[in-house]
Structure formats: structure tokens, C-alpha cells
Amino acid sequence: MIIATTPAQLVEALKPLQGDIGLVMTMGALHEGHLSLVEAARRESDHVVVSIYVNPLQFGPGEDFEAYPRDLEGDVAKLDGVDVVFAPTDESMYPRTPLVRIDPGPVATILEGKTRPTHFAGVLQVVHKVFNLVRPRAAWFGQKDAQQLALIRTMVADLNMPLEIKSVPIKRESSGLAMSSRNSYLSDVEKEQALGLSQALAAGKRVADAGGSAAQTLAVARESLAHAPGIKVDYLELVDRDTFTQLNGSGTGLLVTAAWVGTTRLIDNLEVAIG
Ligand code: AMP
């Protein structure tokens, strides 16, 4: 496995590779959720590239850019069957502040984008750069970041980017907690409290499975989260999984939520079928 720390090193490392490349992009502090993406990429690709980069452009002022867990050595030890790890320095990724920017459009202004207004522009900027550097046949992303996944699919479609976007289901702890690098911020008590998110989504899904309407599904999920101890809700909505606009009638929707447990902001989502 080659570890490239600049775009130039990455390009060199890719030169001898024959066949197609599968790409997995991460911010590191790897857990089983990330590794499920790597596994999926390995199954369908001749070669696999994993990027590990805490992208400053996707963090807003006052967010956890500095505190975000970083453990390149530990991460590399968890990776198996990966040809190249791309772990660039900030200076090599952004030798100057980029002048040409990706505009992620209206979906980037709602839900996650409402609380984190510059987040998705930063995500799409780095995703576009890494796609251009790696030129993968396909890239794997987690359903955990559902709005991000939808925006990446939109970018690829709107800009005719020559690769396939694949998604992998959310990996959860046996408790139901969605795995996240940010779970390392949680105390034992907060980890218990954080179960309120997945439990609220599951409560909504039970209503939908029993034939409940969109409004009933959402109301029960919100009620559950509102009563969960130690949780401050940012949003809980039922949306169309592609447009992320409110789902009112029937169809497949996503219950999406973000909430703070202490000072840690967590997200989760669950697919529900209405009607
Ligand atoms: P991150 O390191 O948080 O930027 O995540 C890198 C990739 O891993 C993204 O495509 C995420 O959606 C995905 N991912 C993160 N957590 C999970 C999880 N629990 N299950 C599946 N995929 C995940």
C-alpha cells in the first residue's frame, strides 16, 4: 500500500495501476462504516484508492475542524487490500484559496445546509478535486450522509462527470447508534442519550410500516425525539430521498434528523415507505 501525501505523489502512485479504480473518500478515524465502503469498492474494482483528509473547506466557523479525530497510522493499519491511501496536506490540496468554486444549489441550503451554510460547497469542492485526481470508475459513499450523497449524485449528473456513484447502507452499533467518527466525542452517558436519534427514527418507521400517513409518521418520530433525554433537536423531517423536499403523499421517503448530544452534533436517517 502506497501512502501519497500530495496530489503529485498520488498521480505517480496511480501510474502503474492497470484496470479500473474504486474510490472511497473519508475524513479518517476509520470505523466499520468506512470499512464497509472499502469492502464494497474492493468487490467491484481492480484497484482501490482511499482518501483520508479532514477538508477544512467543509467546516464552518466554530465547528470541530481542530478537534476532529486524526489517526493516520491507526487508519492505515485498518485498511486491507487498498492500493493507495491519499492523505494530503492542506498546503498541497489548497496551495491558495480556490477561486473557482462549485455551487451546490438549493438542496445545500436546507436541513444540514441550513445549520451549516458553507458545508456542502466545501464537500463538493474536495470531492470534485479528488475525482479529477483519481479518475475512478466508481466512488462509494455512505447512506449515513444522505444529503451529501444526493448532492454528489446531482453534481455528477449536472456536470457529466465520468464515474458511477454507489451507496452503502448505514452501519450501526448493536445498540442502533449510527457509527460515526464523532461518536468518540461522547461520554458513556451521552452514548446512551444518543440512542434517542435512531430510536425516534425507528418509532416513525413503525408507524409507516403499520400504514400510517406521512404526517403521522413524522409526528411520532418528532414526539419520540422531543422526549429523549439529553438531546437538543436541530431538525427531524420526512423528505423525498432524491430532492430532499418534504414528503407529503405516498412513496419512499427518508426520515432525516440532526441533534446535539452535549456539544456533539450527530446525524441519522432511515428509509420509510408511506402508503
Ligand atoms: P466521513 O469520514 O465521516 O466523511 O465519512 C466518509 C464516508 O463514509 C462517507 O461516504 C460517509 O457517508 C461514510 N460513512 C460514515 N459513517 C458511516 C456509517 N455508519 N455507515 C456507512 N457509511 C458511513
UniProtKB/TrEMBL annotation:
Q: Which reaction does it catalyse?
A: (R)-pantoate + beta-alanine + ATP = (R)-pantothenate + AMP + diphosphate + H(+)
Gene3D superfamilies, alphabetized: HUPs (3.40.50.620), Pantoate-beta-alanine ligase, C-terminal domain (3.30.1300.10)
Q: Which domain of life is it from?
A: Bacteria
What positions does the entry give for (R)-pantoate binding?
Answer: Q58, Q148
For this UniProt entry, what is the primary localization, expressed as one broad class? cytoplasm
**EC number(s) reported in the record:** 6.3.2.1
Provide the active-site residues from the annotation: H34 (proton donor)
Compartments it resides in: Cytoplasm
Give the pathway.
Answer: Cofactor biosynthesis; (R)-pantothenate biosynthesis; (R)-pantothenate from (R)-pantoate and beta-alanine: step 1/1
Q: Which GO terms describe its cellular component?
A: cytosol
Q: Does the keyword NADP apply?
A: no
Any one Gene Ontology molecular-function term assigned to this protein's record: ATP binding
Matching HAMAP family: PanC
Q: How does it assemble?
A: Homodimer.
Misc: The reaction proceeds by a bi uni uni bi ping pong mechanism.
Under NCBIfam families, the record lists: cyt_tran_rel (TIGR00125), panC (TIGR00018)
Q: What family is it from?
A: Belongs to the pantothenate synthetase family.
- Protein's UniProt name: Pantothenate synthetase
